[in-house]
Amino acid sequence: MKRRTAFLGLAIATSIALVGCTAADTGSGSTEGVGGEPVTGGTLQVLQNTDFSHLDPAQGFDGGVNNFYRLIYRTLTTQGVGEGAEGTEIVPDLATDTGTPNEDATVWTFTLKDDIFFEDGTPITSADVKFGVERSLDPSISIGSPYAKIVLYMPEDYQGFYISGPLDTIETPDEKTIVFHLNQPYADFAAVVGQAPFTPFPADDESVTTTSIDQQPIASGPYRVTEYQRGSTLVLERNEHWDASTDDVRKAYPDSFEWTFGLDGATIDERMIAGQGDDQNAIAGSVQAASIARIQTPEIQERTIQGLQGCTTYMPLNTTKPGMDDPLVRQAINLAVNKQAVKDGTGGSQLADIATTMMPPTVAGFTEFDLYPSEDFEGDPEAAKELLAEAGYPDGFEFTLDIRNNPKMQAQAEAIQQSLAQAGITVNFNLIDSATFYEVIGTTSQQHDAAITGWCPDWASGATFLPPLFEGTQIFEKGNSNVAQLNDPAVNERIAEIRAMTDVEEANAAWGALDEQIMELAPAVPLLFEKAVMVVGSNVAGAYAHAGFSGGIDYVSVGLASAE
């Protein structure tokens, strides 16, 4: 999945995933966090399968690492704290407010707060924010959030500070003021400046290079990195120059955080369920499907939290392939898929809800609809056969499905294969190694007729969901997120119209309506809204699923019930 459940924008570790806007009661376990108000002090342990992608905020782009960045970095704005919409609201961080746009939202002005510092006590200025953005545009590291590249007004050949020099369209008239000139109206720019590439770094520090931050971050948040052994351990300790009075988001309860990487998922589940020793002070990512039955006891349920990841698991249908280029064929596939079986293969209702829309319910403007209904979501093969016959396939249809070689995705694929067979549709599998899966399906010359993948928005707006997946201009030879390769003039035109709206609420409603317009063309089959289900240590407090970070535990709010 993206942000791809990575950016096709996120490879999510077995730790904590990515993005959204509202939370829902998703079954057993607490949806209101566990353990009450944390105390100040102690060390919070984090057990994780995979290391973070990058410590450099210009390069990391997944839910887990974006959640982590908030502990050591600050940006002009950020997502709030709390469950549901409260957590995904864009709020001021280093800036005094969420920015002032001009009349057409092409020029945005921000003012920095007083008493904001780097970890060495140096004040953070507008020049540092400007430099942080400029360095993130260097092609050697510009692999993280793409929005600075997309919306900033700059020369086509601009390649970051070290190659091209300062960017004149980011102005710093004084140490507290920064002005951004955009290449298009962008009502959501207050959310863009909360993206990781807008992290400030000392503009006059010659030791800051394109690669240095990945080895040794320079903290502007409440913690600093004091020990890091890639793939093994990571330790954060307090940044004494962080001033809590300037920060309404980060509570910074623990004195330190300690990550342990490289743990097998089954081992993590076993340790969290047992909850012995230091694991009483630990948190981890979502449990595996095989462990769900083991966490049903009252004692474990008391320290279980869950929430929607804010992502959509879906099957894009390659609209450039023979047969798949016919909307009737794609509509038939949508009708025939047994989504209940796909859900069961994923682990059942505790790990997923059925999706009938592309946008998840955690995104502002979400509109509920189901254009391809069936009884109990078990598919309608007879209706699918009628559409196939109308499309010229009375004897059925055959296609190849790209999938990862992991048990969950294979179970999902088998459920799809079996249900489509009832409609006369033959599905062949193309098994791809997980390490290269997104690269393969994101390379237009290598992808097949369909795939099972997922997407998480970068903030709770359709602006970061529908365009990357369905806008014709977003089709690239490599790194392609529009896996359906939809290039529909009406959809493209509507996306441009919504993007130009200066009223955020109007735009959000329009994205919801566009979701339905796109699904009439059936370029994809929405399958599931998957959930994160997490067991925390018995001494953990203030833990809840943050809809903005794929349902992961909010790092800036969690702590210990007792630090003794």
TrEMBL record:
CDD domains: PBP2_clavulanate_OppA2. PROSITE patterns: PROKAR_LIPOPROTEIN. Residues 1-23 form the signal peptide. InterPro entries: Peptide/Ni-bd (IPR030678), SBP_5 (IPR039424), SBP_5_dom (IPR000914). SUPFAM superfamilies: Periplasmic binding protein-like II (SSF53850). Residues 89-474 form the Solute-binding protein family domain. Keywords: Signal. PANTHER family: ABC TRANSPORTER SUBSTRATE-BINDING PROTEIN (PTHR30290:SF83), PERIPLASMIC BINDING COMPONENT OF ABC TRANSPORTER (PTHR30290). This is ABC transporter substrate-binding protein. The lineage of its organism: Bacteria, Bacillati, Actinomycetota, Actinomycetes, Micrococcales.
